[in-house]
Write a structure and sequence with these properties.
The chain is an all-alpha fold. About 80% of the residues lie in helices and about 0% in strands. The protein has helices at about 5-60, 70-80, 85-90.
């Protein structure tokens, strides 16, 4: 027959084993949650970075400057009456 002290030690051992498993399980859950959050954050950062780089590249490669002579007639034809041609190009 087990004495009270032995029963207490056995109960304590089982309780410690149970709590160890529970803590390990909770740690795995938290690690998975953190991993998911970090993956999402990293993905968001990479998307923003890609958008910024693509935007800068597109701006650099699609913009061009055309030098016009000082002839006001030529400039007037390009700009159009009341800036109409410029507004059409912006659309």
């Amino acid at each position: 027959m087990l004495c009270l002290r032995q029963k207490h030690e056995i109960l304590s051992w089982h309780r410690q084993r149970y709590l160890t498993k529970e803590i390990a399980s909770r740690i795995r859950e938290v690690e998975q949650e953190v991993s998911n959050v970090l993956t999402k954050m990293a993905s968001d950062i990479l998307v923003r970075l890609a958008q910024r780089i693509v935007g800068e590249y597109a701006a650099e490669s699609t913009n061009s400057t055309v030098h016009l002579p000082d002839d006001t007639t030529a400039k007037g034809r390009i700009i159009g009456r009341e800036g109409r041609n410029i507004r059409i190009l912006k659309v």
